[in-house]
Recover the amino acids of this structure.
């Protein structure tokens, strides 16, 4: 090694030892007779000191050539510092340097390599290799490394086999768009990159591998929006001979293990909630349950009192904001403006203040007497000092709008504790969603998800009512994983493809191999996949997955550092037998 | 769980317990009053027994419906067997079954699911999900699983950070052909799939991540030959602030650790041998050193005796096969035929038998007296009873041919012990190879490999003579890994691109980002990559990597199970703005 130690490990115990460090020049302070350098590597910072009166002039000369981000090798003796720095672990010592070597100079970096940098997003992405030198980025990658190791340790200990599935597979356009790869050896034919290893892991179950996992890259050619990446990483798992609850238990076990090992955090009980319940009481299939404020339906107490807006609404529903009766006019107006934004879409907001003196003050006092509003308060479990916020309209959009308001109130009132994690399972999703545009049902999860056994009979007669044996894991309002018990019966799989409007030929061309496999003794099975980038971001306390990906792409799917995608040579196109159309 | 135990774990301790098993019907023996079933899962086989006189007729009825590979669930009581079977771990017990449920029937599989199957290669690939049910295939995948876990454990303990590099990168046609991926969002532009994460891992070193690893899929669009796959897995590693020997020590440590943990085998000292030595004494840069039989050059004792063939040869070189003086005429003829095969390419074979009576008998007795041949024997350290085999001609092809002969002799004489592993490093490869076809130098390793420091000065004046600071790890004649100390200086990197015939523009377009990165304090670094499929095959004692890949492709790059590659829809082509040329 070019060094004897790294820049994070020297302590008072080492005082007097001759050592060699390598690293990057973080900072130079030249006070004439004395020069100090903060030398940085992945492990920390160590202070180098050069005393001009005692040090070889050639060394001092070399030191005076240095600039920020030069890579150097320094030999010296570990000394106790006069002025100790208790902010860094090496703060008790410094290195009296006898010898230095410039391993590589650096031109001036385009932004400062500091925890708080002056570099904007775009610049940092173009020079991502410099961005990664910064502590916050490096720590995010270290967190990811730990998550990777601990995930595999848990699953290995539970007898899951890690099996690599292929990347050059077959295009199955159901779901998102595939990235495709022209085959040179088979002209006119294409591979596709996997959107997930779904069919392969099911085939592994048919193979008798009863517990499979893989941490694997997946690809979706979607129109990108903020915080979506064309390539992303999944923890992908599948099990045989299990019921739904075995899967829930196994994987809440994984998540608890990760919280314990990586964050030293003891995750509490993981609630299990039906999709219907979540939609009705949180307006959302990924509720943030760090705070309550669930929905209270008020139709029976709010309708029939002459307030036309409520009377003609399918649903009148509210939330109770504790201790907010003292909100000012301005604050209430701001909330009204919020719900009326086009992306929220409510027509207006009704508020009822339950004053400390037990009177009510509302925006609908014209229609409701004090004792009417008292009934609302009873429904909502409101107490004096609370503020009730009520929306009305068609059930679906009203719940969706109230969910946004609830999340905003949670944020405004600091009810989303950054250091708390609340996990829950959402269960019993609808199997199919009607898509108006294509006039057909789409699979809400994917076409391999099994209906709940009690609903199977309705798949042909009443497909919209069938529930799926599917589950999502939600933490702090973020969906971090989802899966289902799969269909393992060929006939049922065919019915499912029928319900989704596949012709027999399409089903056969795309998924014939899977239906064939089901004829050779396919075991009952199910599985789950976690969005690993998202899980890392959640653990790291960030909203952005990009921070947890070493080399992310921007919102146009472009890697600005290597400048990709890019044109290729005519020779390459010719070899593949493809040509570009005039655009 | 649908089961209480698996099919591999029940023992005498469990006798009397009520248990439930799930699995596949391996075999049914129906002797009238008694029926036995071998039930199989991933963990083993357990014998089920049904006594017609004591069992519910509905159960017996169900049993008589079963066929091979049906998936069933069986409830019963663990009993001690009368006739124990010591060939399987569950052989002391059997299950007296009260209840069975058919979880899924099976049509007759296209080949038998046995260790020795009647299914040919093609059939087994088409039904790979059934092939994996066979013990040998499942065990290969289990070995691979273990190799994956242990590799990461070793590297994690050594402070290597696992970092995922992108799959959608940029085409850099130097080296093998890239698979390319059209970008829909950026029409006319393409991503490429990585042939290796080479440039990204070097950028990570520039980022200060001083120890990186990844077990990662890589892609090469090559014309396939036996045992090559278009997608393959690498253990990919890189380190900063190291010398070559630090890398050799670290990674022979990894290999020793894997042998110990996975095979409980203690790998001996890992020899270090120069490329020049390997070529001269084994005719091969991946010598199998489980046996000696190294080359002995005989020019000075064999030339000038009137044997024209030798006299006009650049090289006369032989090997000594111990104890083979008694080879028959027929055996010698067979060896002669072997070396004369077009793919070996020798013109003929000279043999010298050193008889037990200390006389010599050779194919060149006309030209050489007994005392001449005694000199050969001295050079070769031959003893009475040995057979000397000698080739001649131009040095390169002659060594290559003799290497083939040496390997054949090693195999014929059983000198390649299947249970022995001999590892060595090959060092100091040439940096560049002249390519006659393109009339330019190619990088023997890749364009980022550093010349040996003492040779750097000759890069422009005498490029063919420059040695690379590169190394390969060879075990039992198989190259399982290779790497190099990298260039970390922009100017040297430019010189290297010049030597390879890149124009400034090409170098800038393809690798500008890397050369830019070198300007911002790139540390000295180097790394290695192991062919993980090959390493698994070596550990498993197989010559074929395909056995160690769950879903391999055939020699036309086709997955016959899912039938990929395949055509895609016109709509998909249109969205990508590409069209197929008439072929």
């Amino acid at each position: 090694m070019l060094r004897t130690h790294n820049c994070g490990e020297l302590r008072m115990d080492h005082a007097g030892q001759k050592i060699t460090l390598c690293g990057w020049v973080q900072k130079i302070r030249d006070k004439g007779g004395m020069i100090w350098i903060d030398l940085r590597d992945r492990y920390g910072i160590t202070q180098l000191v050069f005393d001009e009166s005692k040090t070889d002039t050639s060394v001092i000369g070399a030191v005076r050539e240095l600039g920020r981000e030069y890579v150097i090798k320094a030999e010296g003796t570990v000394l106790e510092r006069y002025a100790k720095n208790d902010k860094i672990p090496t703060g008790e010592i410094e290195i009296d340097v006898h010898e230095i070597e410039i391993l590589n100079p650096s031109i001036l970096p385009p932004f400062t390599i500091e925890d708080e940098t002056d570099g904007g997003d775009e610049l940092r992405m173009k020079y991502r290799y410099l961005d990664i030198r910064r502590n916050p980025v490096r720590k995010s990658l270290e967190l990811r490394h730990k998550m990777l190791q601990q995930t595999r340790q848990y699953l290995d200990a539970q007898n899951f086999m890690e099996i690599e599935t292929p990347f050059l597979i077959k295009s199955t356009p159901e779901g998102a768009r595939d990235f495709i790869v022209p085959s040179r050896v088979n002209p006119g034919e294409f591979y596709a990159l996997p959107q997930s290893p779904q069919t392969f892991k099911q085939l592994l179950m048919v193979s008798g591998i009863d517990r499979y996992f893989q941490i694997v890259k997946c690809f979706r050619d979607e129109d990108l929006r903020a915080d979506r990446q064309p390539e992303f990483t999944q923890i992908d798992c599948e099990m045989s001979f299990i019921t739904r609850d075995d899967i829930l238990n196994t994987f809440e076990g994984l998540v608890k293990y990760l919280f314990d090992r990586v964050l030293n955090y003891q995750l509490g009980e993981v609630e299990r909630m039906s999709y219907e319940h979540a939609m009705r009481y949180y307006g959302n299939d990924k509720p943030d349950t760090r705070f309550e404020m669930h929905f209270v339906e008020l139709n029976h107490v709010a309708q029939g009192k002459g307030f036309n807006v409520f009377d003609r609404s399918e649903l009148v529903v509210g939330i109770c904001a504790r201790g907010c009766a003292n909100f000012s006019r301005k604050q209430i107006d701001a909330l009204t403006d919020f719900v009326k934004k086009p992306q929220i879409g409510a027509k207006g907001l009704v508020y009822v203040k339950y004053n400390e003196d037990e009177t009510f003050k509302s925006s609908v006092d014209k229609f409701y007497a004090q004792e009417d509003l008292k009934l609302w308060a009873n429904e909502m479990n409101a107490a004096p000092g609370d503020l009730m916020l009520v929306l009305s309209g068609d059930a679906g959009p009203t719940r969706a709008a109230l969910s946004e308001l609830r999340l905003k109130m949670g944020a405004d009132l600091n009810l989303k504790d950054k250091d708390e994690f609340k996990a829950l399972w959402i269960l019993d999703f609808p199997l199919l969603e009607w898509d108006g545009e294509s006039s057909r049902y789409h699979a809400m999860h994917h076409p391999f998800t099994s209906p709940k056994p009690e609903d199977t009979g309705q798949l042909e007669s009443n497909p919209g009512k069938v529930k799926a044996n599917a589950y999502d894991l939600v933490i702090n309002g973020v969906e971090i994983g989802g899966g289902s018990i799969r269909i393992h019966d060929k006939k049922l799989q065919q019915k499912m493809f029928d319900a989704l409007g596949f012709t027999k030929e399409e089903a056969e061309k795309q998924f014939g191999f899977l239906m064939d496999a089901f004829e050779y003794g396919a075991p009952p099975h199910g599985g789950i996949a976690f969005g690993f980038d998202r899980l890392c971001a959640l653990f790291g306390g960030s909203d952005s997955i990009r921070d947890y990906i070493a080399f992310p792409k921007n919102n146009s799917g472009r890697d600005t550092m290597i400048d990709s995608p890019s044109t290729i040579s005519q020779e390459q196109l010719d070899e593949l037998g493809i040509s570009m159309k005039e655009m």
User: Anything to note?
Assistant: Residues 139-273+424-548 of chain B form a domain with the BirA Bifunctional Protein; domain 2 fold (CATH 3.30.930.10). The radius of gyration of chain B is 30 Å. Residues 135-157 of chain B form the longest helix (23 residues). The longest strand of chain B covers residues 18-30.
